[in-house]
Design a protein that fits this description.
The chain has one domain: Rossmann fold (3-Layer(aba) Sandwich), CATH 3.40.50. Helices cover 44% and strands 14% of the residues. It contains ten helices and seven strands. The protein has a seven-stranded parallel β-sheet, sandwiched between helices. The longest helix is centred in the middle third of the chain and has 21 residues. The radius of gyration is 18 Å and the shape is globular. 43% of the residues are buried. The structure holds NADPH dihydro-nicotinamide-adenine-dinucleotide phosphate. NADPH dihydro-nicotinamide-adenine-dinucleotide phosphate (NDP) binds next to helix 1, strand 2, helix 4 and helix 8. Belongs to the short-chain dehydrogenases/reductases (SDR) family. Pfam families: adh_short_C2. Its EC number is 1.1.1.100. Keywords: Oxidoreductase.
Length: 266
C-alpha cells in the first residue's frame, strides 16, 4: 500500500451541519501545530473556540480570525496564559467566562520538548517539560473543573503521545509527562463519571508540525520506516478525532487512551 492511499481527504469531509454549534471549547496551545488544527476543526463544525497561547499572539489572532470569518457558525477569540502559571490561568478563566460563559470542552494540548539523554538531562529541562505537559494539564483542568462538571456533555480531551507508551531515547522527561497523562485521564474520568462528563486522552504518533520539522531529515526517514502506514500523521487527523470526542455523540467513551500512531505498536 502506498502512504498516499491512507492520507486524509478533506474534500470528502465537508460538514453537512454544525454538530458543535452552541459548544464552547478551550484549546490550550491553540496558536500553532496540532492545537491550531484542533481549534480550526472545532470552529469549522460550529463551536465557539477560546484559542489559548503563551507567546504567539499574532498566530493566535490569525487562527481566531480565520475561524470567525469562515462561512460557518463557529467563532473564536485568542486568550493568553502560560499553562504553568496559575495566576495567568485565573485571568484566562475570567476572560473566557466574561466572553462566553462556562466551557463545555477543554482540550489540554499545550506541550513542549527539551530532549537530552538521561545522563545529560538538566533538572531545568526535566522540570520544564513536566511543568507544561503535566502540571499545565492539572492547572487548566482544575481551573475549569466546575464548568466541566456542570455543563451537559462536558469533555476533557488531553493530547498525550505514543512516546508515553513506548518511551524514546533522549525523552525521559517527555515520556514521563506523557504517560502521567494516562493515569491522570483514567482517574479524572472516574471522578467526573457521576456528572456525565467524559475524560479521554489521545496518544498520537509523530505528526507533521514544527515539533517534527525540527528533527533532522535522516532521522525522520528512519522514524517513518518503522511505521506500518509509512508516514507521519496529519494534524487534521488528530483534529478530526478531537472533534468527535468533543461532540455529544462520544458520550460512552471515557477514561480511554486512544492510540493514533499508524500501527507502530502492533
Ligand atoms: P508545537 O510546538 O507546534 O506547538 C506547541 C503549542 O503549545 C504552541 O501553540 C505553544 O504556544 C503552546 N505552548 C507551549 N508551551 C506553552 C505554555 N507554557 N502555555 C501555553 N501554551 C504553550 O507543538 P505540536 O503542535 O507539535 O504539539 C502539540 C501537542 O501534541 C503537544 O502536547 C505535543 O506533546 C503533542 N504531540 C505532538 C506530536 C508531534 O509529532 N508533533 C506527537 C504526539 C503528541 P506559543 O506558540 O504561544 O508558545
Amino acid at each position: 500500500m502506498t502512504p498516499e492511499l491512507t492520507e486524509p481527504r478533506e474534500d470528502l469531509e465537508q460538514p453537512s451541519r454544525q454538530p458543535l454549534t452552541g459548544r464552547t471549547c478551550l484549546v490550550t496551545g491553540g496558536s500553532r501545530g496540532i492545537g491550531r488544527g484542533i481549534a480550526r476543526e472545532l470552529g469549522r463544525y460550529g463551536a465557539t473556540v477560546a484559542v489559548n497561547y503563551r507567546s504567539s499572539e499574532t498566530a493566535a489572532h490569525e487562527v481566531a480570525d480565520e475561524i470567525t470569518e469562515a462561512d460557518t457558525e463557529g467563532t473564536a477569540h485568542p486568550v493568553q496564559a502560560d499553562v504553568t502559571n496559575r495566576t495567568e490561568i485565573e485571568a484566562m478563566r475570567e476572560a473566557v467566562h466574561d466572553s462566553f460563559g462556562p466551557i463545555d470542552v477543554l482540550v489540554n494540548n499545550a506541550g513542549i520538548t527539551c530532549d537530552g539523554t538521561f545522563q545529560n538531562m538538566t533538572p531545568e529541562d526535566w522540570h520544564r517539560v513536566i511543568d507544561v505537559s503535566l502540571h499545565g494539564t492539572f492547572n487548566c483542568t482544575q481551573a475549569f473543573y466546575d464548568d466541566l462538571e456542570t455543563v451537559d456533555h462536558g469533555r476533557v480531551i488531553t493530547i498525550s503521545s505514543v512516546i508515553g507508551k513506548q518511551g524514546n531515547v533522549g525523552q525521559t522527561n517527555y515520556a514521563a509527562a506523557k504517560s502521567g497523562l494516562f493515569g491522570f485521564t483514567r482517574s479524572l474520568a472516574l471522578e467526573l463519571a457521576d456528572s456525565g462528563t467524559t475524560a479521554n486522552c489521545i496518544a498520537p504518533g509523530f505528526t507533521c508540525t514544527e515539533m517534527v520539522d525540527a528533527i533532522p531529515d535522516k532521522i525522520q526517514d528512519e522514524l517513518r520506516a518503522e511505521i506500518p502506514l509509512e508516514r507521519f500523521a496529519e494534524v487534521s487527523e488528530v483534529a478530526g478525532l478531537v472533534r468527535y470526542l468533543a461532540s455529544a455523540k462520544s458520550g460512552y467513551i471515557t477514561g480511554e487512551v486512544i492510540d493514533m500512531n499508524g500501527g507502530i505498536d502492533l
